[in-house]
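Quick one: examine the sequence and fold tokens given here and explain what the tokens say about the fold. Here goes:
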Amino acid sequence: MLELYYFENSICSERPKMALAEKGVTDWVPRHIHLFKGEQFDPAYLKLNPKAQVPTLVHDGEVIRESSLICDYLDDLYPDPPLKPAEPAAIAHMREWIKEADEAGFEGVASLSFVAVFRAKLLAMSDADRQAYWDGQTVLERTQRQKSCVHEGMESPYVMRAIATWERIFARIDKTVAGSGPWLMGEQFTLADLDLSTFIARLDGMTLVEPWLAERPHARAWWRAVKARPSYTQANVGPSGEETEPMRVEGAKIVDAFNRKRAEYVAKYGAG
């Protein structure tokens, strides 16, 4: 039995859902974990995922954590169609993209999401409820990042870190696709494209992706091609349900400040 523990507006949860859709796998069991109701802190779930994060995959009793590792596992479990290149060197190059997405891209999207959307939710809580939310966290680095984004808003240093990261990633996408597209690994759609796509979908849902694509036609073409894949729609990638409008509205509120911050970065360090 294949069980996926996920939250519907979690950018990391969307990765395995899209991988399953790419593979045409439909006989998996959904296990919804509502993050803003604190269900990730339930003792039973913490046994599966001590970091209190989603997604978590359980396959015949074996627990697989971390979204990119889950997608890699699914590609091995369901080898057709393949989402990894055939050559070992190409697989290593593909994993460079995923490593950057996991190590820096996620933090950048999470920071901008908190500043634009989740900051308002947390500030609307009572002091006691907000403290309970912080106390329930299990990863210190995540708590510190979230607190900075909530209390400092666009002045949080994590905002400029996010801009630097995604400036670099979008520039690399544009250059790579121009040289050997249409996908990041050439003719084959791989886990590199998939793992980046759900993060970029969140930026798109907050109306923040356009500044990075405006002068990068190859990255724009790549992004359009990603969104045109059936798996993107089937996995419901991007803000959905009751979160769609708040993401768009709250994201739009910070666009001007975001553009000013990005202009500061580009003036000092250059585009990409």
Q: What stands out?
A: The domain at 2-77 is CATH 3.40.30.10 (Glutaredoxin). The chain has two domains: 2-77, 88-269. Strands lie at 2-6, 29-32, 56-59, 62-65. The longest strand covers residues 2-6.
